[in-house]
Amino acid sequence: MRILVLSSYKDSWNSVRPEAEMFIEMVNQGHDVTIMTQGDAEYVSRFKKHGIHVIDCYPKRKICSHTIKAIRTELKAKYYDIVYALNSKTIPNAAFACIGFPNTKLISYRGTVGGIYRHDPSAYLTHLHPRIDGISCVANAVTESVRTKAYVGHDAIQTIYKGHDLEWYVAEKANREILGLLDSDVVVICVANARKSKGVHILLEAMTHLASISNLHLVLVGRDMDTEENTQRAQQSGMNERIHFLGYRNDVPELMDCRKPLLKRWQ
């Protein structure tokens, strides 16, 4: 198959790697893959090394005339079986660009439960757009949620897991002293780009029941963790000084101490 992918790869290597490697594996299996993304993204050189054609184009907004024109130019230049759009900026631009190309299937990606409402006009720019042919969901719970809202048939909404290789996460252990932690401390770490659906607020509420464990620390890593709501919950937890908001980091495997196989870590 010939596949045109639209996504962003300007993030930490570990964040984009599962998705990016999926397309490299598609090439290894004989498919023809073109990726439209930021030309200066760190992963571009690896894409090219594995025979993926990269087009330097990424939308500045949800409706970007330059991007729509670039997609249509590519679709006119050669036939694509699938256009695969993977985020809130690329999906609407791909949807409008694919109008008039009925033989090309447009697939969108959904990674979270909820958040799609038929009464919300903006939803019709993404997964409820009439040009969408199918939706790829990251987990069964997401698939079940999307099927209750989307207009495409249930069979066109499927779970496709992102593959991970445990070797990607092998790293040297971070120095706990830099984080103000002792080797004897019990550390709970949560890594996410925090949104309401991620449940960070529930985790913080749960810490109130664990505050009596004097050497227990909670480390929160990712964008938008330190919202006013979350910091208030931390202050009310009874262990505020042991809750650490680290923000966005590039050294997550080091922080998680993934030097040992995951199963052995829990033995």
What is the CATH architecture term of the largest domain?
3-Layer(aba) Sandwich
Q: pLDDT under 50 segments (min length 5)?
A: 258-267
Structural class: alpha/beta
CATH topology of the largest domain: Rossmann fold
- Can you tell me the CATH superfamily of the largest domain? Glycogen Phosphorylase B
The overall average pLDDT, rounded, is: 90
Report the radius of gyration as a whole number of Å: 21 Å
Quickly count the helices: 9
Taking the sheet with the most strands, its summary is: 7 strands, parallel
Gross geometry: globular
Question: What's the helix-strand series?
Answer: EHEHEHEHEEHEEHEHEHH
State which percent range the strand residues make up.
15-25%
List how many beta strands DSSP finds: 10
Helix content: 25-40%
| Whole-number tally of structural domains | 2
Distance between the termini: 44 Å
Task: Give a short summary of the structure.
The chain has 267 residues and is α/β, with parallel strands linked by helices.
Describe the fold and architecture.
The chain is of the alpha/beta class. It has 2 domains: 158 residues, Rossmann fold (3-Layer(aba) Sandwich); 97 residues, Glycogen Phosphorylase B (Rossmann fold). It contains 9 helices and 10 strands. It has a 7-stranded parallel sheet, with helices on both faces. The chain has a 3-stranded parallel sheet with strand order 8-9-10. It is globular, with a radius of gyration of 21 Å. The C terminus is likely disordered.
Which labels suit this protein?
single chain, alpha/beta, Rossmann fold, 7-stranded parallel sheet, 10 strands
